[in-house]
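Quick illustration for those who missed Monday's session on complexes.
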Amino acid sequence: MQKTMILALGGNMIKKAKEKGTFEEQYENVTTSCDQIIEIIKQGWNIVITHGNGPQVGNLLLQQELLKDKIPPMPLDVCGALSQGEIGYLVQQILRNKLKKNKINKKVVTIITQVLVDEKDPEFKNPSKPIGPFYKIKNNRFPMVYQTGKGWRRVVPSPDPKEIIEKDQIKDLVENGDVVIACGGGGIPVVERRGQLKGIEGVIDKDLASEKLAEELGIKTMMILTDVDNVYLNYGEKNQKKLEKVTLKEIKEHQKRGHFQKGSMGPKIEASIRLLENGGEGVFITSPKLAIKCLQGKAGTALIR
Ligand code: ADP
Ligand code: MG
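Prediction with magnesium ion bound:
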């Protein structure tokens, strides 16, 4: 098989923190990311695109909440599927148009992806992931946490991904040379009861799901595009130091010392360690504009075995 990478796009790249999240803004942001993806494809890479959905699924949840007296609200797993469709459609169309312009003969397809989780995962007893709108007052409809200065927020379980249900279909497409968009938003969490799958309310981290997919497909390279150029030690402090080329042994030391925040850089580093420990060769973490330079070892952070 041609050299293949998992390319994980941050949900915050598609709707940036300062933006409202209009269709035009998201279209523009996906366009920028797709320009970089084209450059990566031109370097001879086969690509599986994964992406986050935090801002988008948050908006969908708010819509369910606001309209609940008029239209029956959909559960979180359905909202996850809706966001996979929304973002997948944008990437699928914009990338297809750019491939055509660049005379690259590749097809793009989105797979609605379910990800198996363990019903006994401790997250189901102690949910940790804040999602959706902020509330002034705590309500009893679901577990909530208070986020300083911002208000109350619903928390949902963020279980560990165990298996990508559609992995065989994704593999066939990748081997065919197609660009596949999968595991959107970390995938839709499902549990298996007597051989039957059922959606469960929760949000899987997209970096951990991307790693699981890489492992299952035997993909040895992963690139995570986010809103920082590098991974840093002492991030946000006066003595912050950017990491450039780091070995597995070194990154595990830094992780142990608590350099990577839970819920943001933490899962990217955990995913990187898992991949490198399971046959992976390299993980690149940077911003979209530096993607090519990062692959050439001239920018960003590269984690190697
Ligand atoms: P994405 O949507 O791409 O997953 P996240 O917000 O989850 O984005 O993760 C990226 C964020 O991680 C950065 O914007 C940064 O604020 C934060 N971060 C936490 N710790 C670090 C670190 N050690 N180095 C770099 N960024 C960090
Ligand atoms: Mg994230």
